[in-house]
Amino acid sequence: PIVRAVYEGKFGDSYESFRWFFTARCGLISYLGTNDGRVVSLRARQGDADAELAYRGMAYQIAKEIGAMSAALCAILLTGGFAHDAMFTGWIEEAVSFIAPVSVYPGENEMLALAQGALRVLRGEETALEYS
């Protein structure tokens, strides 16, 4: 169905419009109207069955991806904004802890990593890469 929809132009006529649809209109936002984990978590805790189902589904999908990599894992690290939610990470840990030890590191450190990379380039410790 996805290939047919792309072929028929249901997502627009460019890679950018297709990519925008799948990054901005799918996942939690398509089910609940938000992709804010704090809002989804609160709704689930307050008894919103749809929010809990979607949130558990997201945790299940993450657990499946971890399982797919299980042969190569010696530890499982959960990070990002959603890692602040012990309920969410608990569901994942419950599903995958038999594979390897699970550690949770809440927060998003992408901007710090980008800044540190730029500093390494400026100091001559690393060569800048150019992507096209």
Index terms:
single chain; 132 residues; mainly alpha; two-stranded parallel sheet; 7 helices; globular
What does this structure look like?
With 132 residues, the chain is mainly alpha-helical. It has seven helices and two strands. The chain has helices at 2-7, 15-24, 28-32, 37-45, 49-68, 86-96, 110-122, and strands at 76-80, 102-106. Strands 1-2 form a two-stranded parallel sheet. It is globular. It starts with a helix and ends in a 10-residue tail after the last helix.
Lay out the secondary structure.
Layout: H1 2-7, H2 15-24, H3 28-32, H4 37-45, H5 49-68, E1 76-80, H6 86-96, E2 102-106, H7 110-122
Parallel strand pairs: 1-2
Q: What is the number of helices?
A: 7
Mean pLDDT, to the nearest integer, reads 90
- Main pleated sheet: 2 strands, parallel
Gross morphology: globular
Order of helices and strands: HHHHHEHEH
Binned strand content:
5-15%
Spatial gap, N to C terminus:
30 Å
Radius of gyration: 19 Å
| Number of beta-strand segments | 2
Helix content estimate? 55-70%
Q: Low-confidence parts, pLDDT < 50 over ≥5 residues?
A: none
Q: State the secondary-structure class.
A: mainly alpha
